[in-house]
């Protein structure tokens, strides 16, 4: 997954300590979201899913995480129309994969 760090670098304005702290926050948030995705999809808890997606929006937009926002929309639509559990599980696996790739890239940035 390609991450565009231009917005992130503008946001942190060259402050290395702030950048490290923010990267760690982003990593933690993405890890938490990965853990929660299964729960959202199993419970089909659309209000909670929408709230967490909203919470994640800043990270997704700041890092231009390709595909994440689109997949969130697909997942929301699937939950809304009560799609088969297999479809929800496949979307959950795809989301976990995308976010795991993002976490890997953030860890690389954090190490530098």
From TrEMBL:
Phosphoprotein recorded as keyword: yes
Record-listed Phosphohistidine modification sites: 54
GO biological process: phosphorelay signal transduction system
Domain HPt: 15-112
Entries under InterPro entries matching the protein: HPT_dom_sf (IPR036641), Sig_transdc_His_kin_Hpt_dom (IPR008207)
One Gene Ontology molecular-function label: protein kinase activity
Keyword set, alphabetical order: Phosphoprotein
Name of the molecule in the record: HPt domain-containing protein
Organism listed in the record: Thermoflexibacter ruber
